[in-house]
Amino acid sequence: MQPDFNRREFLKLTGMGAVVMASSLSGWGQALAAGQKDFFFLQLSDTHIGFSDTKVNPDFAGTLAKAIDSVNGMARRPDFVVFTGDLTHTTDDDAERRKRLAQFKKIASGLKVKDVRFLPGEHDAGLDNGKAYMEFFGKTHYVFKHKGVNFIALDNVSDPASKVGDAQLQWLSSELKHIDMKAPIVILTHRPLFALYPDWDWDTRDSDKVLELLKPYQNVTVLYGHIHQEHHKQTGQVNQHAARGLMYPLPAPGSVPKKAPIPWDPAQPYKDLGFRGIVTSAGQAMPELIEYPIKGA
User: Fold this and answer.
1) Residue 216 and residue 220: Cα distance in Å, rounded?
2) Is the model's pTM score more than 0.85?
3) Which one, 91, 140, 159, 248, has least CB within 10 Å?
4) Domain ranges of the chain
């Protein structure tokens, strides 16, 4: 069986001109060379519906819609789309939280993709243990399998202590028992599963317990959001990759005294905002990551 297409052909098929390839992640090419069947999905993150600071993003009401137009304009449809948390911006008003979740859901319904999955962020779920989020989107953690790849969505935000928690750890342990140790696993979550920068709440307090459960598994990738920028880190055998956000970028960890959104640059609108494409298959060790800008913004 011949590979479906090479990397250059893939970029042409997506219809997105400006991309950044994670060239060190070579598993995709190896999988295609071996004749493995690949598939393509998208990660969107940190849309923060309800945010309204014009100094940070004067197009706060339209940026997500532009990203959705970018997705809908792709020549090759993704198999599915996943939003990795902070769908909305935090509020301590329960009614306003539900209003924002409903607004996000309405905008996201414009995606011309049949399979769309969601995870909460701390802005969505941290103040009510995920109660409002679950009313709109269902479970905060779950598993699914797609074309031989095992996906595990973890909730590390509903607990105000920034933990996965003992009950979910037991659930994870039980689910992992059904997976071959050589099979590819993709963990979808909001916070990083390592202590990236705890002073800015950029960690999961019991991530060591999660990584211990994953230790026997040879092909594990974590895709997360939360930090509003690309970041790549290997923790043991686990490769962890943060995605850019879709409302505002944040500074590099520890680069400034106080974490705050980076102001809008009129000369470079939508700079450092975007979403991610992932190409993978059941026969490869690492997925290929493709970083997309917001087309036409």
Assistant:
1) 10
2) yes
3) 91
4) 7-292
